[in-house]
Design goal:
Number of strands: 2
Number of domains: 1
Order of helices and strands: HHEEH
Shape: elongated
Largest sheet: 2 strands, antiparallel
Strand order of the largest sheet: 1-2
Number of helices: 3
Radius of gyration: 18 Å
Length: 80
């Protein structure tokens, strides 16, 4: 079942002659998605890719997982 806000966004996007409104709706939708991802993954961190040959004594910095997820999703949307 779709939320009313999702249905409304789709209706706005399909209106002919107003591409600016559709772009604004897409931007708003991405911003909401990004906020949700940041909230959901705020306590998850990772170190990135680590070479097993250098793992012995090196300390690796923790990075938040959310920005990487958002970047990956944006890349996938650009491909489609």
């Amino acid at each position: 079942m779709q939320l009313l806000t999702d249905i409304w966004t789709n209706l706005i996007r399909r209106q002919p002659g107003d591409p600016d409104r559709a772009r604004r709706a897409d931007v708003e939708q991405r911003e909401e998605r990004d906020e949700e991802i940041e909230t959901s993954f705020r306590n998850l961190y990772w170190t990135g890719l680590i070479s097993l040959q250098e793992i012995a004594e090196e300390r690796h910095e923790r990075r938040s997982l959310a920005p990487d997820i958002i970047e990956s999703l944006n890349t996938l949307l650009e491909i489609e």
